[in-house]
Amino acid sequence: MTETLIFDPLIPLPMLLGVAAMVVIAFAFALWRRLPGSWLRGAAGLALLAAIAGPSLQQEDRAPLSDIVLLVVDESASQKIADRVDQNEAAIANVEAELARHPNAELRIVRLADGDGDSGTALMTATSEALSEEPQGRIAGVILLSDGRLHDIERAPRLPAPMHLMLTGQPDDWDRRLVVSHAPAFAILGEQVTLTLRVDDQGAVPTTDAVVLSIAVDGDTPISLPIPIGQDIEIPIELPHGGMNVLQFSIPEADGELTARNNTAVVQINGVRDRLRVLLVSGEPHAGERTWRNLLKSDQTVDLVHFTILRPPEKQDGVPVNELSLIAFPTRELFLDKIHDFDLIIFDRYRRRGILPASYFDNIRQYVEQGGAVLVSSGPEYGAAESIYRSPLGQILPGAPTARVFEEGFVPQITDIGQRHPVTEGLEEFSPNLEGEGPGWGRWFRLVDVLVPTEATTVMSGLDNRPLLTLNRIGEGRVSLIASDHSWLWDRGFEGGGPQLELLRRLAHWMMKEPELEEEALWAEPSGQTMRIIRRTLSEETGDVTVTHPDGTETVLTLEEVSPGRYETLWNGPEIGLYRLGDGTETSVIALGPAAPREFEQTIATGETLEPLVEGTGGGIMPISDGDISIRTVRAGRPANGRGWIGITPRGAYQTADIRITPILPSWAWLLLASVLIIGAWLREGRR
């Protein structure tokens, strides 16, 4: 129980002070005049002041409260390497045992896991949030159990008590990491791009001059080369394909290093084509010729070489074929010497006229087998005796003409397999007329009848379900055949037109092997820690996908069909890093965040970052590797650490259970006392 004198004045404090001043002046005047009874009058004034001030005695029953010691345990990724997990548990047991010897101390344990994404260790944020939930008057100390690698020191709170750091790790720890210091976001296909890498050593590293660097693209077989340690190394890379290329750089794990999680770096570079070089060979003037030319010239990324025959075949005037041009057309240069400079060759209603000899067509066939692309837009000439099918090129074309040509209207249809093929998948959505039956586009009026080989794929059909658009892969290259020359009707808006531009764009991109148009593909689209896994296939079913985690563990996922030929699933990656996907046929890699997260940029335990904050509170940094640490109580303002011990400051907090207020004297007693003193002073003066 504690007792306190309190006052409850009957008048405002300024007036009370004024009355007190008057009493003091009157008493001083009486003393100065040496009036008899002045002491009695002064005492009477004090009694009156006491009556007005209302003095009371306050008695409190107090219950003492325990002192709170906050233990913030860092359980982020960097605290899970080597023996730090065991060090954490041993340190927690040490603190619990030490505080058990202080009966008035209470321990609060706060565990800090990895944050979202690659935010790093938010140790100060966790400490601030924990402090905000406790009464500040009871905080006797804050103990951080960590490797000292935090990423939010600027959010350090104001501390009411000493802060200490119990430092994990060993004095002989060392680590090696791979850093990509410069990498472009995109690169032009066919041109080299330079990446800058560096291998850094940290801690007590054994002497090593060089390591072996492995480079893999999209998870393929890696290549290896030695690189020095501690120097910036420039690596020239040429991207193998368009779209996203995932480059993985790694160095082997050395014996004794802390972790191999920072021995890998992943770079994602988007491969783009600088220019698409197209050779358009037009056989004769027709209504669709200008459409092809306008389509290709409208794209600024296309370099077009147009070779055309301006004299129709029915005009025979005896002029030799090699004299029809104003200048000699460089056929040898185009079809022999520089044919591999072209990305795509288009034959638009072309027939053999003796201008291109059979050896040139055979060279075009070899060009396709070695990775080139040929598109044939055929008319009636394709079924005639002068058809290019009756040249060496016919060995690779995906349709053999039957010599029949149908001249009647039909609406192009997408075949069942065409609904699954990326060239024609969802093409109806681009129709000018989405209402009513059918695909919503206009008719064509000519179809060349062809027989399609079993290995080719017919994605669009025409009259009586005859092949209209056929695709095939030949060696490393690709070929396609449009069995009609009336696609221009869509461009002219006949009967509403149709999605000619979208169709030909997709067709050209498929022939250029753009990844987004591959019919058999497996990839993932990341969004934070969630990835959308997508499998595209021409098959009516697909197998499960096995996801290999950064640590080597595996997860098997089942995909669901969301549209014809497209299977998807959503999956949350448990950690950031490089994941590998595979279903037995297709493989892919994806990086969630960096392959070497922020947690593993610096892995050697140190108290340098926290040292100013800890010393400012009188606390200390104590390596756990030195052994158990004792906890003592120290007075506020005194040093709170020493050799093998740390201190907490008792706060003496309490909770008031009951309050009783008792007046020293009732008001009438103060007035009676004042009256007696005044009468006594009057009698004293009357004797004089």
Structure description:
With 688 residues, this protein is of the alpha/beta class. The protein is 19% helix and 34% strand. The protein contains 11 helices and 37 strands. It has an 8-stranded mixed β-sheet with strand order 16-15-17-18-24-23-22-20. Strands 4-3-5-6-33 form a 5-stranded parallel β-sheet, with helices on both faces. Helix 7 (358-369) links the parallel strand 17 (344-348) and strand 18. It is elongated and about 160 Å long.
Helix and strand layout, with pairings?
Blueprint (H helix, E strand, L loop, with lengths): L1 E6 L5 H21 L4 H16 L1 E10 L2 E8 L9 H16 L5 E8 L10 H10 L6 E8 L16 E5 L6 E9 L3 E3 L3 E12 L6 E8 L5 E6 L3 E7 L4 E8 L13 E9 L3 E7 L6 H9 L4 E7 L22 H7 L6 E5 L9 H12 L3 E5 L22 E7 L6 E2 L32 E5 L5 E5 L5 E8 L2 E6 L5 H4 L8 H12 L9 E7 L2 E7 L8 E4 L5 E4 L2 E4 L2 E7 L4 E6 L4 E6 L18 H6 L4 E3 L6 E4 L7 E2 L2 E4 L5 E10 L3 H20 L2
Parallel strand pairs: 3-4, 3-5, 5-6, 6-33, 8-14, 15-16, 15-17, 17-18, 18-24, 34-36
Antiparallel strand pairs: 1-2, 2-37, 7-9, 9-12, 10-11, 10-13, 13-14, 19-21, 20-22, 22-23, 23-24, 25-26, 26-30, 27-28, 27-31, 29-30, 31-32, 35-36
Helix pairs in contact: 1-2, 2-11
